[in-house]
Amino acid sequence: MWLIFAQTTTVGLALYFLVSVVQPDWIGQRRQIVEVPASAPASSEPVSAAASYREAARTALPSVVHVFTSQKVKLPKNPLFDDPIFRHFFGERQEGETRSAGLGSGVIVSSDGYILTNYHVVEAADQIEVALNDGSTFRARVVGSDPETDLAVLRVSPVKGQTTELRLPAITFGRAEDVRVGDVVLAIGNPFGVGQTMTMGIVSALGRSHLGINTFENFIQTDAAINPGNSGGALVDTQGALIGINTAIYSRSGGSLGIGFAIPASTAKNVMEQIIQNGAVTRGWVGVEAQEITAELAESFGLPDADGALIAGVQRGSPADAAGIRPGDILLAIAGQAVKDPQAMLDLIAGQQPGSSIAFKLRRDKNLVDVKIKVGKRPVASRRGGD
After folding, report:
1. Catalytic residue (one of 63, 105, 120, 387)
2. Over the stretch 212-243, which tens digit does the pLDDT of each residue have?
């Protein structure tokens, strides 16, 4: 009986296994089959703003232009022509000329033809041509420039024979003061002359200064790719509004290393408006040379901290000289605003209206001194000029 039971059980299990493999439906088991489509179905929903910046591109790209410059360059005469015997056989030859070309970018800031770009893009150029996003080209002239912020304003004119007024796609200015570290930004320009390009990054830092690029520095730092040819182009937010003018990069190879600098739109707008209205930028000036107060200097002077700017020199006949400011004085405040370092001093003085009387707070021989100075007009200086 036990043998018959064991054999019957074994045969039953074998049949169950065979049926479960060959015909699982007979015993109520179903395989779950999932069909995987070859491609995801097309969605009629628009791409979200977090995934695409197409609207910002559509808004800002038409307002960014390519700037092509050229200038005459004299070719040096071969020294062999200084030899009279050589000249006897080959004749007299004069110095030749050639034209050097440059490229950059610019931003249309008004529909009637004003364009904002970098000063170094158009510096020394005798011919300037602007190419729009739609392929049309215009001759441009320099309305004015400000080497100390590396900004220039161009204006294009209608082509010869055109009777209608220009209606260019002007960009919208954003609020640079609302920009924060971590915000997404887009850089637009003409890198290496390959054509209009947009790159994406974030705001890496704000208020970058002491870089030795310009006299007045307050840069937006970004990791959006900026390369040669991007200079003068736009740095925009995710709505396509202008928040900066791309101006410089930190690079050891000439290409982008993720450290780019842009002039805030608020600074660019202020400079642009002064150039358009007056042909130049007017800034305050008192005629002092300042030096940073290091920890060692603070200790040697017996100062409680390193705030302020040490007056290293006073220009003879300047407003500071007339007010009795001396080398060795420490400037602490201008018009009630604290001076933290020489760059802050320069910015505060430049922001004063020429002809106005401003209170300067000084530390002299451990005593606090208040002095009134009549601010003068800052002389026109070359790029990276001093105070």
Report:
1. 120
2. 888 888 899 999 988 888 899 999 999 999 99
Residues whose CB is less than 8 angstroms from the CB of residue 10 and which lie 6 or more positions away in sequence, other chains included? none
- Given a contact cutoff of 8 angstroms between Cβ atoms, the answer to whether 67 and 59 are in contact is no
Total-model pTM: 0.73
Catalytic residue among 105, 204, 231, 256: 231
Superfamily grouping for domain 284-377: PDZ domain (2.30.42.10)
The amino acid present at 213, given as its one-letter code, is I
pLDDT surpasses 50 at 272: yes
Question: Is 105 within 8 Å of 76 (Cβ atoms)?
Answer: no
Mean pLDDT of the chain: 82
Set 105, 145, 146, 150: catalytic member: 150
Are 67 and 105 spatial neighbours (Cβ–Cβ below 8 Å)?
yes
Provide the CATH topology of domain 176-278: Thrombin, subunit H (2.40.10)
Higher-scoring residue by pLDDT: 229, 83? 229
Tens-digit pLDDT profile for residues 162-199: 545 678 999 999 988 889 999 999 999 988 888 889 99
Question: Given this model, what pLDDT does residue 238 score?
Answer: 92
Burial of 163: CB neighbours in 10 Å, binned 0-12, 13-18, 19+: exposed
Name the CATH superfamily for 58-156.
Trypsin-like serine proteases (2.40.10.10)
- Segment among 5-19, 343-357, 365-379 with least mean pLDDT: 5-19
β-partners of residue 65 are 106
**Residue among 222, 65, 75 nearest 138 (CA):** 65
Is 150 part of the annotated catalytic residue set?
A: yes
Contact 240, 59 (CB under 8 A): yes
Torsions phi, psi for 143 (to 5 deg)? -75, -40
With vertex at residue 310, the alpha carbon angle to CA 308 and CA 314, rounded to the nearest 5 degrees, is: 130
Are domains 58-156 and 284-377 of this chain identical in fold? no
Cα–Cα distance measured from residue 204 to residue 220, given in angstroms and rounded to the nearest whole number: 8
Say if residues 300 and 328 touch (Cβ distance below 8 Å): no
120 catalytic per annotation: yes
CA trace torsion 20, 21, 25, 27 (10° rounding): 0
DSSP 281-293: ---EE--EEEEE-
